[in-house]
Specification:
- It contains two helices and 26 strands.
- It has 291 residues and is mainly beta.
- The radius of gyration is 24 Å and the shape is globular.
Length: 291
């Protein structure tokens, strides 16, 4: 019998914030300060953001925290410190992983299947308690969200969303509806939906609906989170210019648009491109570009 191990880390890890940021001039990368002034001259083919790592000192027999970044030069990758001296990448350890106060919980495949079965049964119980008017009105009725209770319904080959009283939340006129959620500053999860029509051309327009049925965004870019938590999303206009929207603040992080968003936010930084020039932005919307 296979077992799956879950690792829980009850301790909180507080990391340092970088003071240097990747900065490009011409075709070379260096690092600059918050005012976009070079501190490490442009000399690398590519530069990644600085991040905090643990480094073990065998003489002192203890760890210290160091800010380090990966850089590329002539197809080789190395790691540097903030003073531009090289450090072996193998010495760097992620500070978010620790053996201290760790708790292991083991779950067998059968237990996981049982959890899934209970979840499926709970969903079916909700559907069984659905008012008969919903079952009789729509070809298909599925649970879209339990908090709030919303149903994905289908009629005449079109999809929509209704609540438990049968009131329409998302009009029944779409080919697809995707449920999503993000964690708000208070720690609870907010549900929203992305709805759209299939199109033979590239101008597919997605509409973003709140749980109350209000359209708060429209995008000509397929749903794409701009970070792993889903708190930031990529939104494009008809010309395919991309902007970054913060679901927590319910607004764009800046007034800028980009031709390409080449990554997602990692440790608060993301690589973008505008007019053929690549540079980094942070999740507050600040752009790191040399003058």
């Amino acid at each position: 019998m296979k077992s799956i191990i879950f690792l829980l880390l009850p301790c909180f890890i507080f990391t340092q914030k970088p003071t240097l940021f990747p900065l490009k001039k011409g075709d070379k990368w260096g690092y600059g300060d918050k005012n976009n002034k070079f501190v490490i001259a442009p000399q690398y083919d590519f530069a990644y953001p600085f991040s905090e790592y643990k480094v073990y000192d065998p003489q002192l027999k203890k760890y210290s925290n160091q800010m380090s970044a990966k850089v590329q030069l002539s197809d080789k990758t190395k790691c540097i410190l903030e003073n531009n001296t090289e450090i072996s990448c193998s010495k760097l350890e992620d500070p978010s992983f620790t053996d201290d106060e760790s708790t292991f919980i083991s779950a067998t495949e059968e237990e996981i299947k049982e959890m899934r079965r209970k979840s499926d049964n709970a969903e079916q119980n909700i559907i069984n308690q659905t008012p008969e008017i919903l079952k009789n009105t729509y070809k298909k009725v599925n649970v879209l969200s339990t908090s709030p209770l919303l149903f994905l319904v289908e009629k005449d080959n079109k999809k929509g969303v209704v609540n438990n009283t049968g009131n329409t939340v998302v009009p029944i006129e779409y080919d697809y509806i995707q449920p999503h959620a993000y964690q708000n500053p208070s720690g609870s999860y907010e549900t929203y939906m992305v709805a759209g029509l299939y199109s033979i051309n590239s101008n597919m327009l997605d509409k973003y609906y709140s749980k109350d049925g209000k359209i708060f965004l429209e995008s000509y870019y397929p749903y794409s989170p701009a970070d792993l938590s889903g708190k930031f999303i990529k939104i494009a206009d008809k010309d395919k210019k991309i902007r970054i929207y913060s679901l927590n603040s319910q607004k764009y992080i800046n007034n800028s648009a980009y031709n390409k968003v080449l990554d997602t936010f990692s440790k608060g930084m993301m690589l973008v491109e505008r007019n053929g020039i690549q540079f980094y932005i942070d999740d507050s919307g600040k752009e790191y570009k040399s003058e």
